[in-house]
Write a structure and sequence with these properties.
The chain is mainly α and about 200 residues long. It has 11 helices and no strands. The chain is about 70% helix and about 0% strand. Helix 1 crosses helix 2, helix 6 runs antiparallel to helix 10 and helix 9 runs antiparallel to helix 10. It is elongated. It starts with a helix and ends with a helix. The mean pLDDT is about 90.
Length: about 200
């Protein structure tokens, strides 16, 4: 059933307020502050969004679409390594621009089942990684689950340096990317995490 006009306005105000507050202060901000920014009661917030996860999902729903667009552009690039680098850099840029999204990148939101956007994004990211490996540019033992290490590392760098030098993460990422080149590869001491292990870690953050 469609929401009444006033209820729809409240929902939109809450999403916009949460987007601004999360970007400024991260995902763990008190929801009272979100309601206050939106000019509604905390009861209204919980009527529209029963859990924090519901609100977070609404705020960042468009980010999956953006990541898909970035991934599609990366795959359209002629050079597979350049496409891989473009994808990683652009996602990290999104993290650096929004503290809430930076927090989200290191954790998982509970959901009943993967959405079509989630599945599409996973499919595209897998192809970005496999294409770069087939080209001989990306080290052959890198798997999609290893992308979590890149994300977690840059997340922490952004947290630590954002107030002092907002571009410092780019230097860190430069070191990481050089270490992922095939010609720099050495045998690794332990196997990659499984997708299930990555999900369990992100749920615990």
């Amino acid at each position: 059933m469609p929401l009444r006009k006033d209820a729809q306005r409240n929902r939109e105000r809450l999403v916009e307020a949460a987007r601004a507050v999360f970007a400024e202060r991260g995902l763990d901000v008190a929801l009272d502050d979100v309601a206050r920014r939106a000019g509604v009661s905390i009861g209204t917030l919980y009527n529209r969004f029963p859990t924090r996860a519901d609100l977070v999902a609404a705020v960042f729903a468009d980010r999956r679409e953006t990541v898909i667009e970035i991934a599609e552009h990366a795959l359209a690039m002629n050079d597979a390594w350049a496409g891989f680098v473009h994808f990683v850099e652009q996602v990290c840029r999104m993290q650096a621009a929004d503290r809430g999204y930076n927090d989200l990148s290191a954790r998982s939101i509970p959901q009943a089942a993967p959405t079509p956007d989630h599945l599409r994004g996973h499919e595209l990211m897998t192809e970005i990684v496999e294409r770069a490996k087939r080209s001989g540019a990306l080290r052959p033992d890198f798997v999609l689950a290893d992308m979590a290490f890149v994300t977690w590392a840059i997340t922490r760098t952004i947290e630590a340096t954002g107030d002092v030098d907002p571009q410092a993460w780019r230097r860190h990422l430069g070191f990481v990317l050089d270490g992922l080149r095939a010609q720099a590869a050495h045998p690794l001491p332990v196997p990659a995490l499984t997708d299930d292990q990555v999900s369990r870690i992100m749920r615990s953050c």
